[in-house]
């Protein structure tokens, strides 16, 4: 019998069966529309059916076979769970078939509890704890209130096999120290949460002005909250209500030993918070990403050093196991590429707003030009040193509107202004670039044109003649 097969083989067979079952399930949700057809009712596509819903439906028959298959199906279907706040409104029709609808759909909007999915998840897991034990990754989206935060932590407390969680940033304000210590602790079964994502968004002005929301329980101040078991933290987005900032990262750094750190799209975390976490994890950190995508993320009291006098560029190379790097710094210098023993591999992206120790731009100062081209030369030396170690390394440096590829001595940018100023005589040779536009110092822009690619010597000539503003 198939049930007597080794569990690994049985699991592979059932996974294939679930996959083929999913092909027969509707992958999209639909609605009806009368606005574009002059009163005639027409079915419209609304969106994809969520993956967790598809997995649950595809294992419906498998769950009914026996206990073993039922347990496998629950683990398969509930492995990744996405809980979203419902948005929108509905008007009901009087028939399930479009061709039998008489007249227009009802004008009455039917209320639907936007937190229904979260409430039902709490009830389901409370009444059936084994189902909660099947969850490995869970994602919460759209829940920014005190009540919903309490329900989120109710769900998390029941998921004793959880490995990865994505939460609204506001849980770091509304959650208690008990909530967070329970989430981050090592469980009785020996497992612990390894990945934490905090996702921030802007709220409506009415929500911001609500005094009931102005609550910060400051769980990070408690000695019970320990981030030592986490291996990955990702902070994404900014908010206009109690955003995550440097103080939060400094508090997390007291216990953190991370392997991956991602900070993207935020305007309230500077290099001070970034370095606090990277220093705490200097012996374990393998992936470091810092892309603020806004000017605020580049601000620092001292552009080239920390409060204790440490040089930012030197601090980055102090992580001996760091492999993947994409970072935004206020300024850079050749020290960033001076350590040939670094383990950087693949594409390394460095975004900066200037050169360390230089207050003038490249077009204004020969010293700044010389310092910057020393940086490019040092980057080439590091790439060559890695080649001797059989490590494939490619470095890209983003400053202002320019992208530099030191290994190929190429510069990518929008050169249209320079062409006009030179009367068409510069640059002498250019080719279309496939790398841009990426935005100014890592910021996304809307007014950028297609980029062109020129040699570094051509770029230097444009600087000297004033065709480029840098």
Task: Summarize this entry quickly.
The protein is an alpha/beta fold. The protein has helices spanning 7-23, 51-58, 67-78, 116-127, 129-133, 146-158, 171-174, 177-184, 205-208, 246-253, 271-280, 312-316, 366-388, 416-421, 456-464, and strands at 28-33, 42-48, 80-84, 137-141, 164-168, 195-199, 232-236, 260-264, 287-291, 324-329, 346-352, 393-399, 402-405, 410-413, 431-432, 452-455.
Task: Describe the overall structure.
- With about 475 residues, this protein is of the alpha/beta class.
- The chain contains 15 helices and 16 strands.
- The chain has helices at about 5-25, 50-60, 65-80, 115-125, 130-135, 145-160, 170-175, 175-185, 205-210, 245-255, 270-280, 310-315, 365-390, 415-420, 455-465; strands at about 30-35, 40-50, 80-85, 135-140, 165-170, 195-200, 230-235, 260-265, 285-290, 325-330, 345-350, 395-400, 400-405, 410-415, 430, 450-455.
- It has a 14-stranded mixed β-sheet with strand order 3-4-5-6-7-8-9-10-11-12-13-14-16-15.
- Strand 13 (about 400-405) and strand 14 (about 410-415) form a beta hairpin.
- The radius of gyration is 27 Å and the shape is globular.
